[in-house]
Write a structure and sequence with these properties.
Number of domains: 2
Radius of gyration: 21 Å
Helix content: 10-25%
Largest sheet: 9 strands, mixed
Order of helices and strands: EEEHEHEHEEHEHEEEHEEHEEEEEEEEE
Structural class: alpha/beta
Shape: elongated
Number of helices: 7
CATH superfamily of the largest domain: Spore Coat Polysaccharide Biosynthesis Protein SpsA, Chain A
CATH architecture of the largest domain: Alpha-Beta Complex
Oligomer: single chain
Strand content: 25-35%
CATH topology of the largest domain: Spore Coat Polysaccharide Biosynthesis Protein SpsA, Chain A
Distance between the termini: 50 Å
CATH class of the largest domain: Alpha Beta
Amino acid sequence: MKVGQNFQAVILAAGAGKRLRPLSLTRSKALAPLCGKPMVQWVLESLLDAGIEDVVVVVAALDDDVACWFRDWPGPGHIELVVQPEKKGMANALACAAPKLHKRFIMHACDTIIEPSTVEMLLTSHLDRGAACTLSLEKVHTPEQIRRTGIVAFEGERITWIIEKPEPEEAPSDTSAIPVYLFDPQVLDYLPEVQPSKRGEYEIQDAIKLVITRDREVYGRMVPNRWQITTCDDLLALNCDWLARGFTRTHDQATCIGPVHIGDGVTFGPGCTIGPNAVIEAGAVLGAGVTVRHAILLRDASVPDGALVENTVLAAEPA
C-alpha cells in the first residue's frame, strides 16, 4: 500500500496571479504552462503518484478555467471542487475545504512544485512521528526572501514558532516554511479561532501557532528541491529548468535548436528557428523567418514575419 492512501490532499488554486501578467489576463496561475502541462497538473500527478486518491481543489468559482480543467481531467483520483468566494488567505481556503476532509491531509499551493519522492518523504515522516503538523522547509538567503515568507524557530526538527513575513532583524532563523503543509484533521478545529491579519487575510501560520500553543507536535523537514512561480521571469526560468531535465518536444516544420517543447497545432511559416530554451503552446502562429529563443509563446499567440522573440513570455493579443 502506498503511503498516500492514508491521506487526502487539498490543492489551493483560487489565486489570480496578478504578478504573472500577461499570462494571468487570460488564465489562472494554476494553469501556467510548464513544458506542455499546466502547473497544477504537475502538482496533481505528484500527489497521485504518492497514492493520494482523494483530492479537494479550492477554486475561485465553479465556472472558472481551473474548475473546468479539473472537470475535464481524464486521469485517476476522486476530485471535488470547493469555492473560496473571496481571497482571504490560506486558512480561509482551508476552512472552505474543511467539510470535505476526514483524515490526515496535505495542503499544496498550485504555484509550487516538489518532486514526487519528496511528497512521499513528507507523508512518511508525518505518519512515523504521529505529528499534528509537518512543515516543508527550505533555507532563505536574502532579506527580501525573509519578508515574503513564514520563518520558523525550531529545536532539532521540532518547530517551536512561526512568524509570517518578518523583518530580517526579527526573523528567528534563516529557514522558511514553503506552501506545502501536512496536517492532522484535528487542526481543522482551530480554524474558527484564527483572526484576520493586518492584511485582512486568515493566515495558515496563525493556525499553526495555535497547534504549537496547544502543545501538539509540529515538525519540519527540509525539502531538497522546490520550484515556484510568482512572476513571468519565474515561469520562464522554470520552463528552462524543465527543458534541461528532458521534458522536450520538437517539430519537423521548424529548425529546432534544443532544448525546446512545441505543443500541438502550432503553425510555422517557412524558415523558423526555435530554441534554445523555447516553449510554444498549442495554437500559436509564427510567420516566416521567426526566431524564438529563451522565451514562451502562450496559447494562440501570433508572431509576424521576421520577428525575434527572446527573453519574454508572449501572449495572444486580447480579443
